[in-house]
Amino acid sequence: MGKKAALATTLSRVTRPLGFRVEPEVSWDGAFKNWIADARTRKVDPNDLGDQAWGTDRLRDIGLPEHYAPRLRSDAVIVELGPGSGRLSRHLVGKCDRLILVDRSECVIRWLQRYLAGKGEFDAHVIDGPRFPLAAATADAAFAHGVVEHLPTEDLYWYLHEMRRVLKSGGVAAFNFNNLASSEGALWMSDDYKPLTRTSFRLHMPETIERLASLAGFRRVAIFPTDNRTAFAELTV
Question: What is the reported pTM?
């Protein structure tokens, strides 16, 4: 048992009489490495497996055709926050002038440098928070798929603020989020979330996204609900 898991177990034992439980933090890098290794053994692209496993996030049927691909141009600079294994990145690279990938995981960045090699112009950077390695007003669009669902409100504000900083006038930030206003989102909250238990998945209200975007300096906000808990947002500078 790792130090974090052991500490979480001890804290849970101490706080259980108070009705509070601490869950050990999931190791994304560990799960990521296992997933990549499994795909290699099966001789398949790990992102094909990801599309099958996580299709409810509507990347292929809604996100890509309606919110991400329309922003691609041969002269466009695109920023992607939290690319993970590259489920979205593989559809962007080579279809814009430059793709800039930023993620907090060194493991992810090393993987993407190999996975996307030779497929188009891209840069991959490790970041330690909401600060992208770009000058102000240099990007045409900023994307984040499967990212906002992991960000608490305060962190989301600062990442939106950073997207706003690097986008040109008229540029768009597009991303998906778990929509608490949807019937499925409400059901997910009542069925899957336990009292006083930390989770790495978060639901957001559309009004919260709109308010944060306004505070971050975006001029126009559009929210696009779907028939499940996933919604999409497009924020225009």
Answer: 0.87
